[in-house]
Amino acid sequence: MKGAILNSLLAISSLASARPVYERQDTEYVGPENGTLVIVGGNASDDLIYQKIIDLAGGVDAPIITIPTAEGSPTYDDDAAAAGTFRRLGAKNVTVLHTYDPAVADTEEFAAPLRSAKGVFFGGGRQWRLVDAYAGTLTERLFHDVLARGGVVSGSSAGASIQGSFLARGDTSSNTLPVGDHQVGFGFVRDVAIDQHVLVRNRQFDMFQILALRPELLGVAVDENTALVVHKNDAQVYRGTYVVVYDGTFWSREGADGKNAPGSDAVFYFLKDGDRYDLGKRQVVV
């Protein structure tokens, strides 16, 4: 059975979108060297998470861009992709930026607001829409530039998964397939696959389909209304419930003795608010 599943995944992989994306410059860090990521597992309703994004961007006067493209609606208003929430919390310079056309996304006229942005927030929906619209364009390069300037890139649900180098649930036909026809994310964090809505939707076993195809990856799955804040190699859980880690080992705050954990290809563990993880060493910081 495992062989059949792996063969199916390899077949999907051979058909996966191979569109070029912006290449991160070489760095010793898994996460951004200068800026910060805020990776939210969907249903982001905690004002303190949005406040964290505002603070990391530089405060209420910092320019923040929200990207609603993943939702797939024909049009968007000025409150789309949490723009209204940021304004309610005091942010004074919030812009909604959207296109489905990569030719438009590759123009200076469209992408110009990102040149001064201190924060970006990707809304929820289907993450492949973000790839189809922005991958390989000037807009995608300027997303990375926000981080290079020390800003914050954040997102919820689809906006979480797009931040990984491997795009979890990137299939155009269904969001229930962990491995689909789009497999390359924007790579703000490298060698990582990011899943979302993990506990609420009982997705805690789905990551193993990705790791069967790409065993070198670190798997991270973030639950709803929970954030993982990443800078360099430091990842810290913020608010909410749990982040699930798939690094081939087992960890427990009360020790692993007597836990009878499964093998490295079937094991995961949970981190809660305040817990820290070293992405470079792939181990919990205690």
Summarize the structure.
It is built from 9 helices and 14 strands. The protein has 286 residues and is an alpha/beta fold. Residues 1-15 have low confidence and may be disordered.
Number of strands: 14
Instruction: Estimate what percentage of residues fall within beta strands.
Output: 15-25%
Mean pLDDT: 93
Oligomer: single chain
Please, could you describe this protein's structure?
With 286 residues, the protein is α/β, with parallel strands linked by helices. Strand 2 (64-67), helix 3 (83-88) and strand 3 (94-96) form a beta-alpha-beta unit. It is globular and about 60 Å long. Helix 1 (2-15) packs across helix 9 (207-213). Mean pLDDT is 93; it is low at 1-15. The longest helix is centred in the first third of the chain and has 14 residues, at 2-15. It has 9 helices and 14 strands. Helix content is 24%, strand content 22%.
Give me some keywords for this one.
five-stranded mixed sheet; nine-stranded mixed sheet; 9 helices; alpha/beta; 286 residues; single chain; 14 strands
SSE inventory with pairings:
Blueprint (H helix, E strand, L loop, with lengths): L1 H14 L20 E5 L6 H11 L6 E4 L15 H6 L5 E3 L5 H4 L2 H4 L7 E4 L4 H8 L3 H11 L3 E5 L1 H4 L2 E3 L22 E8 L10 H7 L4 E5 L4 E5 L2 E5 L3 E5 L22 E4 L3 E3 L4 E3 L1
Parallel strand pairs: 1-5, 2-3, 2-4, 4-5, 6-7, 7-8
Antiparallel strand pairs: 1-9, 8-11, 9-10, 10-13, 11-12, 13-14
Helix pairs in contact: 1-9
